Amino acid sequence: MSAAVRECRLRREHSALYPGVEPEVWEIAANVVERLHTRRAWSLGAAIPPSGRLLADTHFEFRGGRRQSRQGSHTRAGELATG
Asked: What is the pLDDT of residue 61?
């Protein structure tokens, strides 16, 4: 996997909060965000972590790449809803 691609892995203890995301499996973070955004788009009552990120740092491990800035990122819940 290229260092430019950011990956994430859901921690098992938080798996109930992220239906459709397999715990303990490395995936491309952008793909996971897209899936979660799609699921949350129909569920307006879905909880968003206090950080405002769909992939909460306390729920996921990350490797490779780097977190994008707000201007280039689609990882924040509000930006996904609008952009």
From this structure: 97
